[in-house]
Amino acid sequence: MLIRSLVESDIDQILAFKLGYHETPWSKKQLVGVLQASLRGTCLVNVGIDDKTRVAIAYIVVSYVLDQADVQNIVVDESFRGLGWGRKMLQATTNELGSKGVTELFLEVRPSNQAAVNLYQSMGFEYKQKRQDYYLGVAGMREDAWVFSLKHR
Question: Structurally, what CATH architecture does the domain formed by 2-151 represent?
Answer without folding.
Answer: 3-Layer(aba) Sandwich (3.40)
